[in-house]
């Protein structure tokens, strides 16, 4: 199966609200945060799913160490 491509506009639909999945993009990769407990409801420490968080992750306490544990659902295209 080909990797799904998301535009920023499409990614916004995956905000974790009202039954939507919670996806975030980091460095061009789109991750599924839906089943990650701290991301329940599409929010985590002031960040909201459905966005490109590439600029935010370097400031997170865990940095990018959590990324290998997350399911990848596609890539972000600009």
From TrEMBL:
Matches recorded under SUPFAM superfamilies: Cytochrome b5-like heme/steroid binding domain (SSF55856)
Source organism superkingdom: Bacteria
Residues of the Cytochrome b5 heme-binding domain: 6-77
Pfam families cross-referenced by the UniProt entry: Cyt-b5
Protein name: Cytochrome B5
